[in-house]
Amino acid sequence: MSLNPSPKTIHVFGSLNMDLVCRTPRLPQLGETILGSDFATLPGGKGANQAVAAARLGAATTMVGRVGDDAFGRQLIEGLQAAGVETRGVATAAAGPTGVAAIAVDDAGHNTIVVVPGANGQVDGEDCDRLVAQLQPGDMLLLQFEVPLPAVIAAAQAAQAQGATVIVDPAPARDDVPPEFFETVDILTPNQTEASQLTGLQVTDLPSATEAARQLVQRGIDLVIVKLGDQGAVVATADRTWHQPALAVNAVDTVAAGDAFNGGLAVALSEGMALEDAVEFATAVAAASVRVPGAQASMPMRSQVAALQTT
Ligand code: RIB
Fold first, then answer.
1. I want to staple 142 with a disulfide (CB 3.0 to 4.6 A). Which of 12, 163, 220, 261 is the partner?
2. Is 122:93 a contact under the CB 8 Å cutoff?
């Protein structure tokens, strides 16, 4: 037996979006029109963002999903390839556009996001077959909720059957997740809103996040991490819970910080890092990402994470 097992491949089954990003001094109120200061089309999608995060940190990474037969779709695939992500698993939908996300980012780096799924909404069993063809025992699978839930459930079941580790980012929050789904989940990483939705608790602070994490662990999930933005994260296993503080950075854009965290966590665990160190590393990856505008554009290289951890 090797003392340093080779890192395993990280597979991402999920969404690819083109982000249509408006910078505004503040987020608009309901019914209000305000003037923005800047606009950009930038590669995004929770799935693709997590894939780029993992690849930039040095992991062998594959992406499985769907884009439309259009310019946005081709740009997204090229962007993944440039980051080092294997894209054989990304299919072009016969009809329908590539997914888009309309995003507003204010001067404090906060955001609102509306996703129109497009081709992501067509992900089904065929995509799952392409995933299964690539999965090996010991690999990691990253899932989110931006593609249809039946496909997410099928992918988790397939990965469990193959002996892969299943990490689920239950984003965006939804209320129709069957309880048995959690039997296929090894690691769950909700944010505050998603933890509230999943538990029915009002998750507003560290004590309520800790209680939510404990309740989710009691459903049979090995590891639950409630991501709390600049408050860090609450981590719970069957044996213990603890708080991992965030690194203090100057945030210019928090879009995809949660995706950066999940990519970093998967890379760290795939390399055999101890859990405490892996959570600290993921926190640093997320912190590095909020210093740069954009989703995939903000995913840091390993050296940038290391530099942040030593400052
Ligand atoms: O998590 C951030 C992502 O959410 C954005 O890139 C956007 O595409 C939406 O999917």
1. 12
2. yes
Secondary structure string (H, E, C) spanning 7-28: CCCEEEECCCEEEEEEECCCCC
Query: CA-to-CA distance for 99 and 146, rounded, in angstroms?
Result: 10
CATH, residue 70: 3.40.1190.20
Q: Which of 259, 262, 299 to mutate to test the pocket of ligand 1 (most atoms within 8 A of CB)?
A: 259
Residue nearest to atom 2 of ligand 1 (CA): 256
Q: What is the pLDDT along the chain (311 residues), one digit of tens a residue?
A: 334 456 699 999 999 999 999 999 999 999 999 999 999 999 999 999 999 999 999 999 999 999 999 999 999 999 999 999 999 999 999 999 999 999 999 998 889 999 999 999 999 999 999 999 999 999 999 999 999 999 999 999 999 999 999 999 999 999 999 999 999 999 999 999 999 999 999 999 999 999 999 999 999 999 999 999 999 999 999 999 999 999 999 999 999 999 999 999 999 999 999 999 999 999 999 999 999 999 999 999 999 999 999 98
Task: Identify whether 76 is part of a domain.
Answer: yes
- Rounded to the nearest angstrom, the distance between the alpha carbon of 230 and the centre of ligand 1 is 18
* Tokens found for residue 255: 């879009």
Q: Which domain holds residue 275?
A: 10-15+45-95+120-309
Position 3 in a domain: no
Model pTM? 0.96
Q: How far apart are CA 38 and CA 220, in angstroms?
A: 46
Q: Which of 15, 19, 75, 110 to mutate to test the pocket of ligand 1 (most atoms within 8 A of CB)?
A: 19
| Residues in contact with ligand 1 (CB, 6 Å cut-off) | 15, 17, 19, 44-46, 49, 101, 113, 115, 146, 255-256, 258-259, 295
In a domain, 38, yes or no: no
If one counts the domains in the chain, the total is: 1
Q: What angle do CA 10, 12, 15 make, to 5 degrees?
A: 160
Å from CA of 19 to ligand 1 middle: 7
Q: Is 69 a catalytic residue?
A: no
